[in-house]
Description:
S1 RNA-binding domain-containing protein, CvfB_WH, 292 residues, CvfB_S1_st, CvfB_S1_2nd
Amino acid sequence: MEHIEAGTVTTLQVERIAPFGYFLTDGEEDVLLHQSEVDRQLEVGESLSVFIYQDKQGRLTATSKIPKIQVGRYGWAEVVNVVENLGVFVDIGINKDILVSLDDLPLFQSVWPSNGDQLFLSLKTDRNGRLFGRLATENIIQQLTKKAPETMKNNNVKGRVYRESKVGTFVLTEDGYRGFVHESERPKEPRLGESIEGRVIDVKKDGTLNLSLIPRGHEKMDEDSEAILSYMHSRNGAMPYSDKSQPDDILERFGMSKASFKRALGKLMKANRIEQREGWTYFKEEDRESKQ
C-alpha cells in the first residue's frame, strides 16, 4: 500500500473521533482532520476524500478542501507574502500558504513576484517530505497551451509572466496561448507572475506569439498627451512650455523627446483642448472652466 503523501488527494476512513476533530486512516497510517477542516459531522467507518499537507509542526494533516493545485496538477496561485532570502508564499486554497523557494525564482529580486501576482505551478516535496510550490517548466507549458491562429497578429492580448530570461519574457495568455516578449520589445522587465497586456507582432509557425509591450504610435501619443494635461492640471491650466521649448527642458520635465512632445501638443490643439501664447501653453477657456 502506498504511503500517505503531502500534496495529494486520497480516500481515508474515519477511525476515531476526538473533541478537536477526526483521526483518519488508510489501514496503516493515521492523520488528523481538524474540525475546522470539514463542514459536517462524520461517523466512525465513513470514507471521504481529503487533501494531505503538513501543519505548522511539520505533521501530516488532512483537509476536505480540495485545491486545484496538487502534486502533478497545475494552476494559478496568488502570491500573498514575499520573504527576502527565502522566497514567496502562495495561496492554493487551503489554510496553509505554500513556499516557492528562492532557488526557483529569478536571480534578481527586482523581478520577483509581488503580493497579488500569480504563479503557474504545481506542488512538490523535498527529500524530507516537505511541501513546496513547483513552477511550471517550458515542457509543461507546451503541453498545456494551444496553437494561436495567424489572425491574432496585431491584436492585443492579456496574460501573465510564467518565466524570465536574459533574452526576454515568457507569457501565458488568458486564452491559453504561449507568448514571448524579446528584451527589445519591453520598456522595462516585468515581474514573474505580473499581469501584462501586449500587442501580437508575429504568429510563429508553431503557434506561439511574439509580443511587444511598447505602445503603438497613437497609443504612445495618447499617453504623452495625458502626461501634458496632468501637468497642466497641477498648474491651474497653464505651463511655461510650448513647441518652442528646448529639448533638454522637455526631456527633464516630461521624460519625452521634443518630437513626441510636439506631436502630443498638436493632438491636443487639434482637439481644441489647449492653445499657445508667447511661449506658454494654456487650457482653452471651456476646458479650464470644466476643471474648476
